[in-house]
């Protein structure tokens, strides 16, 4: 801050109380003659990405037709940007084939190094104007939204840039829905009709609002907003079964009888624990019959092919045909919530998240970002590259589900906390206010993230509980029975009354095992239980507040100042992606189980390791020294008493697989080059974008690039 007037201005910005930040999108339709249209003309009339004056590349997508063929054959006069052509596969009105076709085209774009500053140019054909609905999806998903120019050959009606669907009617998008936060990817349209402009008409935000009654100790609502929209984030601190019933009551009250088709989605582990089926059963008891979808667990399964199943999309089609609202309920961890959210967004369904891990609750659900990773041949090429922005109507967390978390999951939560503590520290303090004075409306949610450091005893007590041999065996017994239940479920549903009774008996047995498992927690000494509760309560409150401080008003799409939450993620994502593939390879190759399991590192653990590496890089550059450096690194080391952030076991896995240090670095850096932040600021093919702390935790290294707040390009 270089003057007293700037101080006053920025403090006013920090202290402001703004309202909704949604702005209706506007799109211009340009009249053109398809016989003389050029790519250069489309580029010149399409608004460039914010902060840029040109496009990185033009990705032409078509389904054949005369206009596309003429553009392909036309000579290029302006060669300042590459132009690549992609043909949409035939889909035949099948929602599953439509889903697959979109992602197959997008994978080709990503591997060709398209980025946020690329332009998708959809070229329609006069005999199939219904295919124009694909245009918006092709721009909606890469990097959660890039510019689209829609060239329509329809001479009868204008395409709607805000509301569109694929020929099957199952995949649909409506930018007027505030759950999309006003995001519209169609930047310009071209066609034979007279020129005109279109303006979106945003509807009123209607979440499943939950206001805990005064004095109710079981329900806690964490303050949170995105783009000025309140998002109900509910913690249920009572008994698990009562929490499930309370969730079903809230959902049932929000939808008239018979109008809702719930689709519960969960991964293999949560399926075995029964959490997803419990939610579906509670809704069925209240008159909302629905469907149950399970998928493979883990980061390598966070891919579109795992979720774009014909049966899943068929359920959505049936609900729409019956005039019902499809409601996706994601029960589980962050991978499940992210991927299920993409399917909900692509089908225009309502969405509710029920996180069963602390990290999903305080990190993944506090972002409108939902995404698949780019996974090819079982290997993650880049994390979270294909997705969109979509708000859940409700986030409902039942605290007792956290007891079945793994130690890796708890460490993952802390790894993300160390990132946030180092990036933000205490913005409620005088120093923090000065550091982040330019964040609009920050005062409302400014939190002291360093309070999490005082909860180390609760973190350690929780890990001790999870790792305790009787606890591990009790959970293993639940999972074994859950696996048996999963094996007979399909047969029981279609079988005899005897088969259904046997299945119900197995489910009741699992319920009783889980009750005994939870009872073990309540047998802990009071001090241990209080410490664990404080760790979960404080970490959730402070991290959710930290996210809201940036997303509520300043940067809901996480493109500018909120990019700071990507601190330590560029390298962390790349290591995580490489390691997920290496773990799968090691298991398939017969590497000793103790070596493999010791090397497992979840998302937040890789972020935690990357925080240490980022600190070392900052120290080498002279940006972080002395007590500031010690404090930065110490935040990770404080929580490393169980070795959850140690790289040694990963090195041992590399040795077992015969992976050399150069091999490891080459593959990890390949992931860095495809990182999902590419395109936010200019960098070459052999460079990456990352952030560094300078001087002390809470102060980030500045950049002259207006598109990359407080980042370093190296």
Structure overview:
The chain has 714 residues and is α/β, with parallel strands linked by helices. Helix content is 44%, strand content 15%. It contains 24 helices and 22 strands. The strands form 6 sheets. A 7-stranded mixed beta sheet has the order 3-2-4-5-8-1-9, sandwiched between helices. Strand 11 and strand 12 form a beta hairpin. Helix 11 (334-347) packs across helix 12 (358-364), helix 15 (456-467) crosses helix 18 and helix 16 runs antiparallel to helix 17 (497-522). The chain is globular and about 80 Å long. Residues 1-5 and 708-714 have low confidence and may be disordered.
**What composes the largest sheet?**
7 strands, mixed
**Helical content band:** 40-55%
Classify the beta-strand content into a percent band.
15-25%
Per DSSP E runs of 2 or more residues, the count of β-strands stands at 22
The Cα radius of gyration reads 25 Å
Strand order of the largest sheet: 3-2-4-5-8-1-9
Question: Which descriptor suits the 3D outline?
Answer: globular
Mean pLDDT: 92
Terminal Cα span? 26 Å
Low-confidence runs: 1-5, 708-714
Number of helices: 24
Structural class: alpha/beta
Detail the topology: elements first, then pairings.
Elements lengths: L3 H12 L10 E6 L7 H7 L12 E5 L3 H8 L9 E5 L7 H17 L7 E5 L10 H7 L6 E5 L11 E3 L6 E3 L11 E6 L4 E4 L19 E4 L2 E2 L2 E2 L2 E4 L3 H15 L5 E8 H6 L1 H11 L5 E5 L8 H4 L2 H12 L3 E8 L1 H14 L2 E6 L2 H7 L4 E8 L2 E11 L4 E5 L8 H18 L5 H6 L20 H12 L1 H26 L2 H26 L3 H26 L17 H21 L3 H7 L3 H18 L5 H13 L9 H10 L3 H13 L15 E2 L21 E2 L1
Parallel strand pairs: 1-8, 2-3, 2-4, 4-5, 5-8, 13-20, 14-15, 14-16, 16-17, 17-20
Antiparallel strand pairs: 1-9, 6-7, 10-13, 11-12, 18-19, 21-22
